[in-house]
């Protein structure tokens, strides 16, 4: 785990920029609606250098939509993205990747029939000149094998032969290949959406170790997970998402799993549990407004119905 966590000294997690550092990736008031469903509502996000930031939230809280916005798979309707403090827009995952953002999805995005080296370089194959100075550039299988072995060794992924087809690997090994691929190409950060969801205990441990090693290299990792023990084991900070927005950022050093779950489900307000937490002012303002206008407690799913509707209801981007 990285030692670069910010704002977690003392009892609570404070605003990450308190020490003057610029987030590697920042989202400001990101919103995204699918027809009448407001999947993301003024969501803020910060990933600091070298940290492992876990993002937690109930089913449908909008975590995947956030990941998609940060990785270029979805364009937010509103809001701003900043990479190293500079505004960016991603029109596709390819554009996000070109800027050093790699994403690993839960559904093992590997090509099972191809070997490990080919999977590592999928879509980004190393090439060499063709025979007799031909202009055709050929895939350089040997260079890819050497480099793949080097990358896996460097990350401590133990796989005997990179010429093995991925379908011959265990689930944990396959996910390790997907994570190693992301780590090999990411220059800014790695995003992981439920990387251990399909894995057993031992295999999950393998992937968590890999995340630790990636972060120890100085590469920040954003990790979505429903698995609280994993989150509390590995995260420097925990971003809590609820009903489309960030409602709190807490630290495993100041908050218990019960605290985090209480905030996540709306059973408790961020300021009422754990140490002092850095919670989203707007979300807190909304909650206060609700209590003063006759409704009590935190927002409910009904609050997310977009009154303006919008085009493309139910469309899958
Ligand atoms: N392409 C889409 N079309 C319509 N509605 C969508 C689409 N994608 C997400 N939604 C809706 O947006 C809301 C947020 O979904 P999202 O998948 O981001 O949540 P999540 O926190 O990742 O949920 P889970 O933990 O269950 O994966 C949900 O109500 C979901 O049904």
Automatic annotation (TrEMBL):
GO terms for molecular function: ATP binding; ATP hydrolysis activity. InterPro entries: AAA+_ATPase (IPR003593), ABC_carbohydrate_import_ATPase (IPR050107), ABC_transporter-like_ATP-bd (IPR003439), P-loop_NTPase (IPR027417). Keywords: ATP-binding, Nucleotide-binding. Residues 25-268 form the ABC transporter domain. Residues 269-284 have a biased composition (Basic and acidic residues). PROSITE patterns: ABC_TRANSPORTER_2. The keyword Ribonucleoprotein does not apply. Residues 1-26, 266-317 are annotated as: Disordered. This is Sugar ABC transporter ATP-binding protein. It comes from Cellulomonas carbonis T26.
């Amino acid at each position: 785990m990285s030692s670069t966590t910010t704002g977690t000294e003392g009892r609570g997690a404070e605003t990450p920029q308190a020490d003057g550092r610029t987030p590697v990736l920042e989202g400001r008031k990101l919103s995204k609606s699918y027809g009448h469903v407001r999947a993301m509502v003024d969501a803020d996000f910060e990933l600091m250098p070298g940290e492992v930031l876990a993002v937690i939230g109930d089913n449908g809280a909008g975590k995947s939509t956030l990941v998609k916005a940060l990785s270029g798979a979805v364009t937010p309707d509103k809001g701003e993205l900043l990479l190293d403090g500079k505004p960016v827009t991603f029109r596709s995952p390819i554009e996000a990747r070109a800027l050093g953002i790699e994403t690993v999805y839960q559904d093992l995005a590997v090509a099972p029939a191809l070997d490990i080296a080919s999977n590592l370089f999928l879509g980004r194959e190393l090439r060499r000149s063709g025979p007799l100075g031909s202009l055709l550039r050929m895939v350089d299988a040997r260079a890819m094998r050497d480099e793949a072995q080097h990358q896996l060794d460097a990350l401590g992924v133990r796989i005997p032969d990179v010429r093995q087809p991925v379908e011959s690997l265990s689930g944990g090994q396959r996910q390790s290949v997907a994570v190693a691929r992301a780590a090999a190409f990411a220059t800014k950060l790695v995003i992981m959406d439920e990387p251990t969801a399909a894995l057993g205990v031992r295999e999950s441990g393998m992937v968590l170790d890999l995340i630790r090693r990636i972060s120890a290299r100085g590469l920040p990792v954003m990790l979505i997970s429903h698995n609280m023990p994993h989150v509390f084991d590995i995260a420097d900070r925990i971003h809590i998402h609820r009903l489309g927005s960030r409602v709190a950022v807490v630290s495993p050093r100041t908050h218990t799993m019960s605290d985090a779950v209480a905030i996540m489900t709306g059973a408790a307000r961020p300021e009422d549990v754990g140490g002092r937490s850095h919670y989203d002012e707007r979300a807190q303002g909304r909650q206060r407004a609700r209590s003063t206008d006759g409704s009590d407690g935190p927002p409910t799913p009904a609050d997310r119905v977009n009154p303006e509707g919008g085009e493309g209801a139910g469309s899958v981007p």
